[in-house]
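Entry 14. Structure prediction run on the chain below.
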Amino acid sequence: MQGFRVQPGFFEMIIRYALLAALGTVLAAAVPAQQAPALRAPVIRQVDQLQITSVDPDGLFRIFTETLELPVVWPLTRNQQYVTGAFSTGNLTVEIYRYEGTQQSPAAHFSGIIFEPYPMDYVLDELKYLRVRHGKPETHVSTLPGGKEGVLWTRVELPSISRLSFRAFLYEYSPSFLRVEVRRKQLGNRLTLNDGGPLGLLGAKEIVIAAADMAKERKAWEQILGKPSSSGTFTAGTGPAIRVVRGQEDRLEELVLRVKSLNSARNHLKAEKLQGPGSAQTLLLNSSRIQGLKVRLVE
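Output returned:
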């Protein structure tokens, strides 16, 4: 049997390949894995609206605007497509609506969250940089208050934080149609003049979002709102914060309202049969009276 003969330079070639492989390993370890870009500047001014889908918007609207005396943003109105009405917590507009001709659960649920963005052109560029999926801008054209036709608002959906049970949008209103910051201030002043109503309401504190995969959900919200605070909430402007908690399904879980005094609020809710479970630090509204919604009061 003929013996194996090593060609000249064979061992030098092996050593050279070994050195190159080792160098490649060192370089690979020195270069971090590609990560999603971090938020460079805020894209969200604040949460502007929270939407509630209800099979009985009339009854729910009366509880919040008559029994609890919260300011009416727009009265309950009807057309062939939907019923809608809205009230204010001072720093948040809460819309109650029902689409006509659709099958709905008898229980109401939080079904949408609307953000007031910084100028939309800038925000869309920033979302592209952040590699955040978003819908195409949809504009609504109609007659402006001055009588001319123009864009009333531009809407962009955020599928990265929308879920099956709720949708998230950016809404930019034409200043010729609506200045949302002025409206919020006026409604907040109205609530203050009424001493917060029977609840002594100071404003919306948090919107709680339940998530089956907390890590994934927090990462999605971090791309939009930046790093959470030390308490774990995502803040944006003077509106309510966003808190992500663990849940069996992805949903808008509850609205947390801040009041001057839990004891005073408890007395009024008890008299109106609206008092739910509570403790010295927190109190829930009776969910059976508000169509299954979870609304919590804290000081």
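The two ends are 93 Å apart (CA to CA).
Filed with the rest of this week's runs.
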